[in-house]
Every structure is written in C-alpha cells, then in structure tokens.
Amino acid sequence: MVLVLAALLGTGVAVQLPRELPAATVSTSIAATLRVPGAKPVLPWPQRGSAELMIEGLGRLGGSGGGAAKPIGSVAKVMTAYVILRDHPLSGNEQGPTLTVTAADVADYHARIPSGQSLVPVVAGERLTERDALEALMLPSANNIAHQLAVWDAGSEAAFVDKMNAAADELGLRHTRYTDPSGFLPSTVSTAPDQVTLARAALKMPVFATIVELREATIPVAGRIRNYNDLLGVEGVFGIKTGSTDEAGGNLVFAARIKVGTNTLVVVGAVFNQPGANTPEQLVAVNGVVRRLLAAVRRNVKEYTLLATGRAGEVRTAWGATAAVSPGAPLKVIGWPGSAVPVRVVTVTPGAEVTAGQTVGSVEAAGRRVDLRTDTGAAAPSLWWRLTRRP
Q1: Would you call 182 a catalytic residue per the annotation?
Q2: 1 pLDDT tier (thresholds 50, 70, 90)
Q3: Upstream peptide bond of 55 is cis (omega within 30 degrees of 0)
Q4: Residue burial 345-369, b: 16+ Cβ < 10 Å; e: rest
C-alpha cells in the first residue's frame, strides 16, 4: 500500500510541478469619473442678460441667463465670416479674390448712414481683397461690407442668409436664426451657448483667428481701421466680436488664453444683452462682466490632484495571494473644483509571479497618465497547492 501511494505521489509530482502557473488578475476600485476636490466655484455671472463659458479640452464651466434667443447685434458677423471663409478659404497671408465696389454698394453705404450703423466708406470701382473685406467686417464691424460680402458670395443678401441658417443647422445651433448678415436687424437672434459653439468652429480657421486678434488694419479708401474690441490683450483676450444695438444691448463673443503652469488654455465665452443707453455704455458693461469672469477663471482653473497615491486595487494570483496596487505618482489634472473628469483605466496581465513595484496598468485623465504599480510582491504558491490544483 505504501508503495502504491508513493507511486501515485511520484506520478502527481511529475505531472503537477512542471505545469505552467496561471497568470494573476488585476482589479481596481478607480471610478470611471472622478471629481476635482472642492466645491464648484460660484462665478460672477451677469445679473441681466446671459453668459456662457467653456475651456477647450476641459469642457463647459457653466452659464447663466438661458431662456429664449435674443438679438445679438454684430456678433452675427461671426457667422458671416465663417461662411465666407468656408466658401472661399484663405491660408497664411493670402489676400484672396478681389471684390469690386459697385454703384449699388455705394448706394447701400449711403442708405445706412442715417440709421447710425457701423460702416466703412466705399467708392465705386474700389477694389477690396477678400481679406480686406473680412478685416472691415470684423474690426470696425462694417454693416455695408457684410452686405457686399453676402452679395459677392451668394448673388443676393437673401441667398446668403439662407446659407447662414444652413450653416447654423449644420453646427447644431438650435436657437439661432439669421435674417441679415450684419446683425443690425433685431430679428437676427441667438443664445450665448449657440454662439460659443460657432466661435469654437470659426477659431479653427487660422485666418479668422488671425483677423479677430488684429488691433488695426489698413484697407483701400477707408485707410486705417480699428478693432472695436477694447478687451484685446486684457486678461489674455484675443478676439472675437462685439455687438450692440438698442434691442440687443451690449454683446461680446470672446476668446482668451490663460496660463496654468506650462500649459496655455483657451477660454471661449459669450456675454449677451448687457444694459446701457448707447453703444459705449453697453460695451463698457459687457466688458466689465467679461473681465470679472476671466479673473474668476484664473483664480479657479489650476492643477489639482485628482487621484492620490494609495491603494487603488489589487493583484490576485490563482492560489489566492494578493498585492496592493497604487498609482506610481499622484494623478494631477488641470481643472476647477467640483468638475467631473472622465478617467480611463488600463490593466495589463502581470504574469504568474508578482513582484514589488511591477507595472500592472495605468490610469489616465485629461491628458495626464500615471502607472499603476504593485506595492509589494505576492507570495509564491505552496507545494501543496501546486500538487493538488485542478487541471
């Protein structure tokens, strides 16, 4: 009997011990979404009108006002420029095709003077490049050039307005309706969130971004033209478009660069329908709101620890031994208190034997990544487990 048992045991040892050990498994307790520590900041939203703020690459900071679409004044010219550059793309320093001022263009210019519209003087036979016209459109906000560009592009202002509304639909601007290319008509309406969406799309056109950052330019006949956006260079602002009428109040769609450590972030926002008895008062009001909002953004948008070092999971071997898993370093992200950040966890098969400091995966959020590592090694299997484990 003893000989039989010894024979069986010898056979088991010969069969079991050489068998390859199964790989360990990794599990984590890291949620798919983590929140930056702290309470969400209360931003100085305007008491009247509406506002919207977002940061490229990070998401929406918030907004105020909401409600129905309202007149936006010359902010409408962002869509005019967008459609023109989409239909007639420019790159680098290209000037583009030439627009020749007609007698009808001159008549349109004179017809707009009594109503106090923003204009640049034109004369019959004057030749403007596409870039000249876009500079006149976006810097001194020339309504007559908006009309001239519309006719040049689509054959008539009505046909161009149809293009504007089609582009709005394509971009998902559900609360926007254009009735003219300049925004002078109060029937041209939109919302702050819609116009932030449009501004983000327009800024992807390098020539558009270059033009709206100009403080001044020189064009034929009118000569030196100045950008009406007095916030250029203040709080990092590099565009985009002012707008003011009696019905719209003061409006500004803006973009600003802010530095967080070695990173440069782009804030895109809109503040609409600010009060004032006239254009200067309206623009002072809207500029004040924008400055306060951007100052608050700078105070709150920083680098925060999203995931500290410490146990965040474990490695478990087939024989039940475990080793804690922790981030190799704190996972730090740029954001603001209370913001939700999507997190991606990737694990790798660690093999059968687990050693201390072994990389078993990674965790990533907001473009930052740290390794997941074992705190200790896992105990080796006992001889008994190896001999008695099931096939």
Answers
A1: no
A2: very low
A3: no
A4: bebeebebebeeebebbbbebbebe
CA 65, 67, 70, 76 torsion-angle sign:
positive
Residue 145 belongs to what H/E stretch? helix 143-154
Give me the catalytic one of 64, 74, 182, 326.
74
- 126 within 8 A of 142, measured Cβ to Cβ: no
The SS3 assignment for 11 reads helix
Asked if 362 and 371 touch (Cβ cutoff 8 Å), the reply is: yes
Taken as a whole, the chain contains a residue count of: 391
Strands 59-64 and 50-55 come out as: antiparallel
Selected catalytic residue, list 64, 70, 77, 339: 77
- pLDDT (tens digit, 9 = 90+) per residue, 2-34? 444 444 445 556 667 778 889 999 999 999 999
> Among 299, 294, 302, which Cα is nearest to 233's?
294
Q: Give the residue ranges of the annotated binding site.
A: 241
| 302 in active site | no
For the segment 262-276, what is each residue's pLDDT rounded down to a tens digit? 999 999 999 999 999
C-alpha 356, offset from chain centre: 41
**How far is the C-alpha of 276 from the C-alpha of 375, rounded, in Å?**
63
Mean pLDDT for 337-345 is 96
